[in-house]
UniProtKB/TrEMBL annotation:
Transmembrane segments: none annotated. GO terms for biological process: rRNA base methylation; tRNA methylation. The keyword Hydrolase does not apply. InterPro entries: Aldolase_TIM, Methyltransferase_A, rRNA_lsu_MTrfase_RlmN/Cfr, rSAM, rSAM_sf. Belongs to the radical SAM superfamily. RlmN family. Pfam families: Radical_SAM. It is found in: Cytoplasm. GO terms for cellular component: cytoplasm. The lineage of its organism: Bacteria, Pseudomonadati, Myxococcota, Myxococcia, Myxococcales. One of its GO terms (molecular function) is 4 iron, 4 sulfur cluster binding. Keywords: 4Fe-4S, Cytoplasm, Disulfide bond, Iron, Iron-sulfur, Metal-binding, Methyltransferase, S-adenosyl-L-methionine, Transferase. This is Ribosomal RNA large subunit methyltransferase N.
Amino acid sequence: MKFHLKTLSLPELEAVLAPVQPSPVAVRKVFAAVFAHGASTVEEVCRAPQVPKRVADFLREHAEMPRLTVVERRKAEDGFVKYLFDSPLGGRVEAVRIPIFDHKYVVCISSQVGCALACDFCMTGKLGFQRNLRTWEILEQVMQIREEADRPVRGVVFMGMGEPLLNYTETLRAAQILSHPAGFAISGPSITFSTAGMVPAIRRYVREGHPYRLAFSVTSAIPEKRLKVLPIEKGHPLPELVDAIREYATVRRERAMIAYVAISGFNLGEEDAVALKQAFEGIPIKVDLIDVTDPQGKYLPPSPEELKAFRDHLQILGAPIARRYSGGKEIGAACGTLAASQYGGVVLPAPPPVSIS
C-alpha cells in the first residue's frame, strides 16, 4: 500500500523514509518540494534539488499524490472567490479565498464533508455528516488556491464545512504542516480553528499547547436561546464551554475570541448583553459580531439600528467589539452558507499558475 506524501508531517516523513537512511537535509528537501514548492506529482518531488537517487527511487515505488479536482471557481462582487472541490475519496467540499486589502489572501477551508452539528442557521449542517477529510485533502484546498493566486496566502481559517475539532488529528496535522517553515510557512497565530464548543477537544488543545488560535461560536449566552440554534448546547452546555474558554484564555494569556452570530429579533437585546457579561465575568474576551446569512430566510440579519443598539449594550463587557465582514453572500461563500452549491457571481476560468515567494 502506498503512502500519500501530502499526509505526512516532517517527523512522519522521516520515519517513512527511514529504510533508505536519508540525511536530515534530504528529508527536508522532500518535505519542502511537496509543501513549500507545491509539487503536484511524485516525479516532480523526485527531481527536486538535493533529493538523492535512492530516496527518489523509494518514492517512485512507494509514494502517491492524488489531488482534489476543482469543479469550479466562482467570484463575488466583493472579491471573494469560492472554490468547489471534488475528492477521489468521495464528496465535495468548498474553500473560500478572502482578499485582505490588496496585498494578501486568507483561505477559509473545510475539515469535513458535511457536518454533524446541525446548527440551525448553517447550510452545511443541513447536509448532515458524511466523513472527515484526510490531511492531504485539507492541505490541497490551500495548495490549489495558492497555485492560482496573484498574492501570497498569509492566513488560514478552519471555518468552512465541518467542525474541525471533530476531526482533531487530521486538522492539527494539517496546521502543523501549514505553519512549518519548510511547509507553507504561515505563522501559527495566523491559523484559526472555529469551534461550536467541543469541550473535551478544547481542553486537549489547551493541554497540548498549540500555537494556533481558537474562535468560539457562542451566539447566545442564554442557554435556552443557544439551544434553539446550536444543538451542541445539549451535549456541552454553556457553563462547561465557558470553563474551557477560561482555561484557554488563562493558559495563553490572551483574549478569547467569541464569535456571535447576530440574528434580528433573537439575540440582540439588552438581556443578551447582560447574559454575556455574567457568563464571561473575569475572562478576557473579544467579541466578533457576524451578521447571519440564511439563504432560506428563516433568520434575518439585524438592521443597522438594531446592531448599533446591541453594540451599545455590549459596552458593559469592557471588551473589544468587532464586526466581522462575511463576504461572498451572493455565491454561497459567507459564514454558514457553504453547502457545495453553484449559484451567483461569475464563474472563473482556471488562471495560469503564478509563483508567489
